[in-house]
């Protein structure tokens, strides 16, 4: 590079540094304003997450961006990232407490990750929370005494047994809830062990979410809804969206959404391991989509094998869903073995037609993800 070029670049880069510093100051200012909004909302008991405000704000900024010859998608990406920060900061002020005369909450399995998250959210909302874990059963009576709600969040394999053995003498005013990722059997167990209000919940997220804003919690009603309605409102205040479901339908969906999916990720990892694939090497040749896929598979093996065994082994019926997948794999492999390119294309088109408008929608969504995977690359 010539000296002139170096000088020119240096000067421009100094300007860029200064603009970035101004951005930083603006960010600080925005964070402070959002914190003030958080304070006002907290006092009024309003959830921080305000989708309508977000939609109208984004529409206006996009319009203004276009007029300034800035890409509307750029401002939308930046604002969405900032809004995520807004939800995370909400934990600093806490949440409105919907039910003020509940008595304390007992979380059976409160030391587990999901139990811990719910304990934290409830505490931030002003509830007194006690945890009951496997070594605490001797003190159970004292822990349960005066509880207004008991939430069960223990491994799926022991959930029903625990409910049937240990939760048979709660007072009928006490709410009994669970967070298990299957719903029909735990709900039956709760309804038969307890006379009072019962509700089944399935948080559709892992314990590592920073905030519940926009996350989904599935609700399967048991009995006495009017007595636990406040809990649903409370979860809404945390920002989550509640989706009501029939327990049986929910469990059927989980055979595909969880069992089959996690199982195929497990086999994908197993296959890489048996092939002794060199991950470093694969990453060097990876396209963003491959990296994203590897991230999805690899993250499984950073977590507890018990958790995934629990999810995959939870329902006998998942075996059918996984077996069907294996059959389809074998049939598709036959196309390949026969060199039946036309057959492959026919099947492809049939699936594409079945996906319908979802296919282009998923393409758009994944494009944004792939771009951020690429952004994260260094060097
Ligand atoms: C700050 C607010 O709360 C949330 C955060 C927003 C933001 O960061 O701009 C916008 C809407 C809300 O989801 C607000 O309602 O204005």
TrEMBL record:
Domain Chorismate mutase: start-end pairs: 3-94
Coiled coil (residue ranges): 2-29
Q: Where in the cell is it found?
A: Cytoplasm
Q: Which residues form the Prephenate/arogenate dehydrogenase domain?
A: 103-366
Gene Ontology, cellular component aspect? cytoplasm
Write out the GO MF terms.
chorismate mutase activity; NAD+ binding; prephenate dehydrogenase (NAD+) activity; prephenate dehydrogenase (NADP+) activity
Q: Which InterPro entries match?
A: 6-PGluconate_DH-like_C_sf, Chor_mut/prephenate_DH_T, Chorismate_II_sf, CM_dom_sf, CM_II_prokaryot, CM_T, NAD(P)-bd_dom_sf, PDH_C
Q: Which UniProt keywords apply?
A: Amino-acid biosynthesis, Aromatic amino acid biosynthesis, Coiled coil, Cytoplasm, Isomerase, NAD, Oxidoreductase, Tyrosine biosynthesis
Q: In which pathway does it act?
A: Amino-acid biosynthesis; L-tyrosine biosynthesis; (4-hydroxyphenyl)pyruvate from prephenate (NAD(+) route): step 1/1; Metabolic intermediate biosynthesis; prephenate biosynthesis; prephenate from chorismate: step 1/1
Q: Is Transmembrane given among the entry's keywords?
A: no
* Top-level taxon of origin: Bacteria
GO BP annotations of the record are: chorismate metabolic process; tyrosine biosynthetic process
NCBIfam families from the UniProt entry: CM_T, PRK11199.1
Its name, as the record gives it, is T-protein
Origin organism is Shewanella insulae
Gene giving rise to this polypeptide: tyrA
